[in-house]
Amino acid sequence: MRFPGVVLDDKTGAFVISGLPEGRNQIYASARKYVTHWFGNIEDASAAQSLMVSLNSVVKNIDFELTRGGFYRGRFWPTTRDVL
């Protein structure tokens, strides 16, 4: 289940996430043209750390550092026939 609610506070990128359910949550940051990072600065969702949230709690000093993404344009062929 996804819970929207990321709010950018200011020009420094400070944020507030509200409305998370109590318990363990996995959070991530994403932006157009950047690689999505999960809590713990992990790019792979299956390896992401969980964040424990208590009712009416405030968790501070969570930081994400997004790296600029890229893309490939063109055609790609496998080097051997059995790859696909």
Can you walk me through this structure?
By secondary structure, this protein is mainly beta. The chain is 0% helix and 19% strand. The strands form three sheets. It has a two-stranded antiparallel ribbon with strand order 1-2. Strands 3-6 form a two-stranded antiparallel sheet. A hairpin with a 7-residue loop joins strand 4 (28-29) and strand 5. It has one domain (1-71). It has strands at residues 6-8, 15-17, 23-25, 28-29, 37-38, 51-53. The two termini are 33 Å apart.
How is the secondary structure organized here?
Layout: E1 6-8, E2 15-17, E3 23-25, E4 28-29, E5 37-38, E6 51-53
Antiparallel strand pairs: 1-2, 3-6, 4-5
Terminal Cα separation, in Å? 33 Å
Element order: H for helix, E for strand: EEEEEE
Tell me the overall shape.
Answer: elongated
Overall number of strands: 6
User: How many domain modules?
Assistant: 1
Poorly predicted segments: none
Question: Which structural class should the secondary elements be placed in?
Answer: mainly beta
Q: Describe the biggest sheet?
A: 2 strands, antiparallel
Our Rg estimate from Cα atoms comes to 17 Å
Helix content: under 10%
Strands in their spatial order, largest beta sheet: 1-2
Task: Estimate the strand proportion.
Answer: 15-25%
Overall mean pLDDT: 78
Please count the helical segments: 0
Index terms:
two-stranded antiparallel ribbon; 0% helix; 6 strands; mainly beta; two-stranded antiparallel sheet; 84 residues
